[in-house]
Amino acid sequence: MSGAAVVPAPSAPPALRVEGLAKKYCRSFRRGVAYWGLDLLRGVAGRPMPGHLRPDEFWALSDVSFEVQPGECLGLVGANGAGKSTLLKVLTGILEPTQGRVEVRGRVGALIELGAGFHPDLTGRENIYINGAILGLTRKEIDARFGDIVEFAGVGEFLDTPVRFYSSGMYVRLGFAVAAHTRPDVLLIDEVLAVGDVPFQNRCYERVRRFLDEGCAAVLVSHNPLAIRRFCRRALWLRQGQAARLGEAAEVLQEYELQDKRPGVIRHPADPVPWPGMEDGPVRVLSLALEDEHGAARELFRPGERLRVRLGYEVTAEQFKGVFWVDLIRQDGVRAMAFTSPRGEQAFVLPRGKGELVLETSPLHMIPGVFAVNTMVWDEAVHGYLYYRNGPRFSFVHPQLDERWGVVETPATWQVLAGRAGA
Amino acid sequence: MKNRPTLPVVCYEPTGSQGAGLRVFLRMAEELWKFRELLRELVRRDFRVRRRSSFLGLFWSLAHPAALVAVFVWLKNSRLVFEGDVGMPYALYAYLGVLHWNLFSSLLAYSAGSLLNASNLVAKVKFPRETLVLAACARAVVDWLLALPVLAVLFWWVGVVPAWPIVFAPVALVPLILLGAGLGMLLAVVALPVRDVVQALPLALAPLLFLSPVLYELPVSGAWPTLRALNPVAAVLDMLRGLCVSVAPESVQAWLVWCLISLFVFLSCWRVFHGIVKRIPEYA
User: Fold this and answer.
1) Residues of B with CB under 8 A from a CB of A
2) Has residue A89 got a pLDDT over 80?
3) Predicted ipTM?
């Protein structure tokens, strides 16, 4: 099984074609119902729908166009509320477009709502049939795939137990298993691969990969850039309902992660979050800036370049003796590197007032990704944080490598010792 | 890679005209037919859940009409309420009335809540929404079926041997079921954005119960005959009770008229349902 999906020649008809798609929503429930009623009357009277926005209305999607070829997986990224789920719902046919057009070739499978229609009082076996029927399978089809579904879900011994007593993992696994056996031609995936334990996640990923290899087209919504990079050659970045960028997955992701500040701060899970009273401590970090070794501001670095972090501080106590940390956190929360100022006897002693600390790394050799530069001030005397600050992001690019190559790049040598048996 | 040359293409566009007349009904029926297995599964699910989720399970379907009729038989025997001849033993009369009134009112009540109760499903999965309403209607019919044995016992108890036309009794229910399912669809689709419908329904049904010959015969003076003629429940009950004893020709006529009206109501409600249910997920 190769890493990249099979992308047939563009002459093949696309499995999914979206043209000028727009979806209007109303913020106010009551107004929405009223507008709906008015629209209905308009429709009955044969008058055209209003093109403008009435009070409280907004475009949840506007002018979105793309195509997905059979065997291709399109990544869909965007902040919360950017319209990703709305788009998927329009693609499944649950929501009707306000404008534009969606063409789907073949059967749509949606890994959106797992375990749809499961009833807690019914057994796993019974729920498989109901869920399958809701997803459009006939009883015969379910009979034929029943064994596979049970095996995939790994709920064998609990098959005749009401799903009420299932763990949440088992519940979702069963839901995924049924959805995964609908043999779709177009697969829509909404973040569901993030469920279950790691072995099951991997099974899900494998399953999706197999769908793609079989020529199924897919749209994958994920907040995990690594998942997008893994499956998708192309990605679409939705920002406030509009297609901010459509293109090579790596480029789209890079731009999205740098520019869209809304996904929140990138931090290590164990790091503190800024706490009340933090600003009243003896020391504050006023600014964090990134530049290269020549002092030019940068947000993109290449292999072999040095990173310079300029940290502006203010000491409000008489003097301050402590340790500064600067961390590089990758977008998935991995702490890629950490630098501390000298500790113990050599710790900086800073007088009252403002000043700057400058940290310069040795030449960086990292694997591409988006990194946030965060800082912490540590009080060695009391073993506690004095200050925490999320800093700017930079993107590390590499001409050859991607995240499959690990976290850092370091040179190594090989030796061939022919004729010697291994230990 | 599989070779997939001739996959059907589905198009989603803003609906303008959906094509006129019967063509739309054919499409609606075809879509529903494709999901007949879902309907079956939903009915089965409902049945199983009700059987399992309480100790007395399905017993409750017959407990309600039986208890109500017992109370009214007692009231009648102690001459507290309405005297007069109903043309057959009162217990039988009342049970026939309550059983079918329940059928009609639960058709409406179950279906009115059907989309609302499944709003999560409606919001996230695509399938013909009619199946939910029809499954709710099937539930009401199952209630009716389960309460039938009591009716048989009642016949034996009061010593009435029903005339042979009783085999047509299920056919006599047609207007009731068509009306219930049709209006039920309408209520269901309106109930999602306008929840008031579910609250208002019992309020609307209560007066109808008192205006129908369910537990007592209606007066024959003044405006009553007109009211009765406008009442589908009365038409069906007259027909059913007639089938048990002897059918009056004018009740057959009224019943036939109601058959036509209910068919028309069902089809138009279904059409309206189909037209507006597409935007329901926005409000689910």
Assistant:
1) 1-2, 4, 7-17, 34-35, 37-38, 40-42, 45, 48-49, 52-53, 118, 120-121, 123-127, 193-194, 275-276, 278-279, 281-283
2) yes
3) 0.83
